Amino acid sequence: MATEVCREKSNEIKAVPRLIDKINISGKIVTADAMSMQKDIIDRIRENGGDFLIELKANQPSLRYGVEDRLKERTPVYSHTEWPELGYGRNENRTYRVFDGLDIIADKEKWGGNMTIIAYESETVKKTSGVQTSEKRLYVSSLPTGTPALGSLVHNHWSLDFNLLQDRIKRKSAKAVRNLDSIQ
Q1: What does residue 179 show for φ and ψ, rounded to 5 degrees?
Q2: Verdict on whether the full-model pTM lies above 0.85
Q3: Where residue 4 falls among pLDDT bands split at 50, 70, 90?
Q4: Which residues contact 30 (CB under 8 A, 6 or more apart)?
Q5: pLDDT band at 131 (very low <50, low <70, confident <90, very high)
Q6: Which residues contact 16 (CB under 8 A, 6 or more apart)?
Q7: β-strand pairing of 51-56 with 78-87
Q8: C-alpha 121: how far from its chain's center?
Q9: Cα 55 to Cα 76: distance, rounded to the nearest angstrom
Q10: For residue 172, how many other CB atoms are within 10 A of its CB?
Q11: Measuring CA to CA, how many Å separate 37 from each of 20, 32, 134, 136, 143?
C-alpha cells in the first residue's frame, strides 16, 4: 500500500501521520501498536474518515492507568470467550470484554470524542511443557461497542505483529526497511 521511512533523528510518531495521508483510509479500520496512540495520529485517522483500534500501554500513562482503575468498577457492555485455540504449539483461551469509554476515559475531548475500550485476556498452556502463562492487554477504538468481531480485530492485529516478527526485527538502513516492508 505505502511505506514511510522515519527520518533521521525522528520516530514513527512523526512518520505515521505522513503515511496516513498517503493512503485512502476512509471507511477502513487502522490497527496500530501503542506508539500510535498520539493525539495527532488519532486526529489524522478521524479526519481522513477512518476508524482505529490501537493498543493502550504506558506511553500514555494517565490514559492507561486511569482506564485500568475505572474498569475495575465497570461491567462490560459485551464479553466473549473463545475456547481453546490450538496453534503455535499451545492451547489458548481468549476473553474479550468491551466497555463504553464514555465514563471511563477522563480526557475524552483530547482524543476527539467517545471511544470503546477492549480488555483482552489470554490463558495459554504450552503443549510440550505444560507451562501456563497469562496476558492482559488494553485497546482503544473509535468503533462503537456493538461493532461485530471487535475481538477478531484485536486478535488479527496481534497475529500480524507476531507472525511478521515486527517487534523483533531490527532494520539498520532505509533500504532494508523498504525491502522488508515490501516483502511483508
Answers
A1: -65, -50
A2: no
A3: low
A4: 20, 45, 50, 51, 52, 53, 54
A5: very high
A6: 4, 32, 36, 38, 41, 44
A7: unpaired
A8: 14
A9: 18
A10: 7
A11: 14, 8, 24, 18, 15
The set of cell numbers assigned to 45 is: 485517522
Nearest to 139 by CA among 45, 32, 27: 32
In DSSP terms, 124 is beta-bridged to 92, 133
Closest CA to 36 of 18, 56, 63, 62: 56
* Length of the chain, in residues: 184
Is residue 56 within 8 A of residue 34, CB to CB? The reply is: yes
- Write out the three cell numbers for 124: 495459554
Is residue 69 scored above 60 in pLDDT?
yes
C-alpha cell of 14? 512523526
- Does residue 117 contact residue 98 with C-beta atoms inside 8 Å? yes
